[in-house]
Amino acid sequence: MSVLGNDDIYANKIFLNSVLPLLKVIVEDVPSIGNYWIGRSAVCQVSAIGPEEKVGTHFVIDEGQWTVKKGIYDGEPHVELEFPGIEALNSFFQGKSKKLPKMKGWYRLGTFVNFMKVLLKMAALLGLEKPPETQEEKALLVKMYFYLLSAGISQLNKAGHKSISEWTKISPDRVYAWEVETHPDCSAYMRVKAGKSKACRGIYKRSKPFFTMRFDNCDSALGILMAIDDMIESTVKGKLKMVGGPEYGAQLGDFMLMVGDYAK
Amino acid sequence: MAGLTYTILDAANMSTAEVYGKALEQLADNHDNVVGLTADLAKSTKIGVLAEKHPDRLYNMGIAEQNLFGVAAGMAGAGLVPYVSTFAVFTSMRALDQVHTDICYQNLNVKMIATHAGLSFGQAGSTHHCTEDIGIMRTMANLTVVVPADGIAAAEAVTAAYSKNGPVYIRLNRGYDQPVYDSSTCDFEIGKSIELAEGTDLTIIACGAAVYRAREAASVLKNNDGVHARVIDMHTIKPIDRDAILKAVHDTRRIITVEDHNIIGGLGSAVAEVMAESGKACAFKRLGVPDTFSIIGLHEDLMANYGFDVNGILNSARELMNMDFEEDDDWEDEL
Amino acid sequence: MALTETEFLELEDKSRELRHLIVDTVQWAGGAHIGGSLSAIDIMTLLYYKYLNIDVTNPEWGDRDRFILSKGHIGVGLAPVLADKGFIDKQELKTFNHTGSSLGIHLDKNKVRGLDASTGSLGHGLSLALGTTLAGRHQKKDFKTWCLLGDGECNEGSVWEAAMAASHYKAHNMITIVDRNMCMMDGSTEDVMALEPFADKWKAFGFHVIEVDGHNLKELAEAMEGAMDYTKGPVLLLCNTIKGCGVEFIAGDYRYHYASFDPEKHQLCKDQIDQYHDLRKEENR
């Protein structure tokens, strides 16, 4: 097995801890997918066999309620997608490889099929080149991006990514937030303090965030998030407001792009 | 000269007290019922400026402070608007019975200009310092308490006091204050604090001589530490600008108060009262004279000695930024 | 003669009436500062019923004469006067000192119509009077300001600060009266904190001093007119009085600074007031 480079580790962390958790959002926000799980219980897992240990993310479903848990389930999951290595997992999620992982528990057809449905829906949404048609899907995608990016930056910090961790190290206790004016429930934020970081969902209520990236509606948000629009132009047009110092907005934008690069 | 941070040139532009003397003169020009009183301190308190143009309107009552304030009350009762000036230590303690009973209780239009407050008369020692007056005057019902930051603000306060019904206590220094405002930047309104710098990392609330220092400290914090401190000139201690404090509690969650006064009972306590009643957690530190009688010295040196000069504020700000007060145990990302 | 015979008889009757009203108010209050009120009531009768230029319908009138009760604890002495004159409702006297009442030991000028100053802390009145006088001078008005002090009150340094300043500012139009009843709370003034030579002290401070019997209406009126005519500077009416004057069993007794009576004693007071006034009217016709 080749030695894992830092980039592989970072990408892996992003997939395991920022991308996979989005499955819960899909289940909660898309009725056609979520309805199957009502009243059902199961444990599903996505894992990879790393050089030292197995890594992964598992989902504990209890009476239809999804809880995302980091790491490997202590027991036998009902359904598991096990990749032979970290690079294999990364390549698969980046869309570079079509090599399927080992599918454990495939004979539990209902659970298996529907778990794959969730995964595929997420992949489909994140893989879109153009914004979706319906308002609901637009809002959902914005929410997914916000959660992904905030958690992604935080994960990179925790993993010791050079430029991000240098930035968090010298930061006083500050909160950076992402918002859409028309859809307050799509918000996310990240708290940073002296090297530590924490990504959170929703609106930060305790105080005024140090910096907020505020979009006027979902279209404007997706324009930036899907790299269709240019940030400066959007700001000029009023689609995007940087509340707080613009220099912090630019920096945050850079970090968001970094996360995006690892995920693609 | 050791301790001074301004040049002789600056001093010419600086005297808080003289600027207010001019404001008083203007009031007297425009209103027949304005008179001035002092207790043999016309020169020191600069109320003597009034006498230059209106000699018949300044009453010197000699070194008898109790009578000074009683006479002022009598004048106000008969329809005049007296401006009474002596040192803060005498206004707030020696003549307090008159201030309390003749002026505040009867709710009379006496405007008290208390000079040489805090440690500003440094070399005169504790007999002439006054680090208790904000605490004392805050508890007088009916009394408005104003602590202007510099000469311009003092002039504004003196003028605003005329239109404010009832007794007003204005606390000034000795007259050598660095300017904070120029006439175009001072938007003075009794009861409304002035935000001098924006920020959401922490808030520094100051009054009087401490305002200049707070602003300087915020500047250093921004350029040096990358910390954005909000600076508020809380010139009116009573009625205090509760909204500004509550906003600072919510927006920044860290507050430092700075005053040339005992940390007990003054601006710090007033801010703490609002904070505590808000029920919201907030890191908090009061800077000022640490409940002691001061050593003698130049005003600048004394502020440094007791930790509420620019460096003192910087140290406290940096300490506060490292304090944990929010749930800090769980740094796991939400899933 | 300052008073005509008719005036004298009317004023005698009025001061008798007011003594009754004071004693009644003390009763309604359940106890009050009776001694110092009775020693001052003749002075206040002459002021309010002959000399003060005031208007009951306009208590804020800018040109009115002022009366500052520096010995503010005799609210029970002044309130009946204000009620009888019509500044306040006589019925209110029945609530004197009751919770929430507008009338109490120390009268509040923001609650009592016709009152020029809130006093109670001794030693303030003379400064207030001086301020009022100087204001009048500034406004080029000619009203008189009367200030009534107790003798024990003159222990307070602030009184002498005001006296010194009054003299410095040649404050005529300000007439100071001391109710020299020789008593304070802990004993006679000369035993507790001696004031004598009292008149000399005032003279040394630049006052023109007129000594007079504070219970002889004819002499008191003469003295008041003399004081009003003096224009060279501040003037003092040193009134020799008797604490509790009019009620024989308390007269001259420092222990009746403050008192409350049972109905029997109350009636005794009233009977003795009548006896006193009958005698006084006869003696001074």
Word description of this protein:
The complex is a heterotrimer of chains A (264), B (335) and C (285). Chain A contains ten helices and ten strands. Chain A is an alpha+beta fold and 264 residues long. In chain A, the strands form two sheets. Chain A has a five-stranded mixed β-sheet with strand order 3-2-1-4-5. Chain B has two domains: 8-171, Thiamin diphosphate (ThDP)-binding fold, Pyr/PP domains (Rossmann fold), CATH 3.40.50; 194-322, 3-Layer(aba) Sandwich (Rossmann fold), CATH 3.40.50. Chain B has helices at 8-12, 16-30, 48-53, 65-77, 88-94, 96-104, 133-138, 151-163, 210-225, 242-252, 267-278, 299-305, 310-322, and strands spanning 34-38, 58-60, 81-87, 111-115, 144-146, 168-171, 194-197, 202-206, 229-233, 236-238, 254-262, 283-289. In chain B, the strands form two sheets. A seven-stranded mixed β-sheet of chain B has the order 2-1-3-4-6-5-10, sandwiched between helices. A five-stranded mixed β-sheet of chain B has the order 7-9-8-11-12, with helices on both faces. Chain B starts with 7 loop residues before the first helix and ends in a 13-residue tail after the last helix. The relative contact order of chain B is 0.12. Chain C has helices spanning 5-29, 34-51, 75-85, 125-138, 157-168, 189-192, 198-204, 217-229, 263-284, and strands at 66-69, 145-150, 174-180, 183-184, 187-188, 208-213, 235-240. Chains in contact: A-B, B-C. Chains A and B meet through strand 3, helix 6 and strand 8 of A and helix 10 of B.
The major beta sheet of chain C can be summarized as: 5 strands, parallel
**Mean pLDDT score of chain B:** 91
Q: How many distinct folded domains of chain B? A: 2
CATH superfamily placement of chain C: Thiamin diphosphate (ThDP)-binding fold, Pyr/PP domains
In the CATH scheme, the class of chain C would be Alpha Beta
Number of discrete helical segments of chain B: 13
Unreliable segments of 5+ consecutive residues of chain B: 1-12
Q: What string, H for helix and E for strand, traces the elements of chain B in order?
A: HHEHEHEHHEHEHEEEHEEHEHEHH
Which assembly state applies to the chains in this document?
Answer: heterotrimer
Order of helices and strands of chain C: HHEHHEHEEEHHEHEH
The CATH architecture of chain C can be named as 3-Layer(aba) Sandwich
Q: Give helix % range of chain B.
A: 25-40%
Q: What does the main sheet of chain B amount to? A: 7 strands, mixed
Overall average residue pLDDT of chain C: 96
* Apparent shape of chain C: globular
Largest interface pair: B-C, 30 and 33 residues
Number of strand segments of chain C? 7
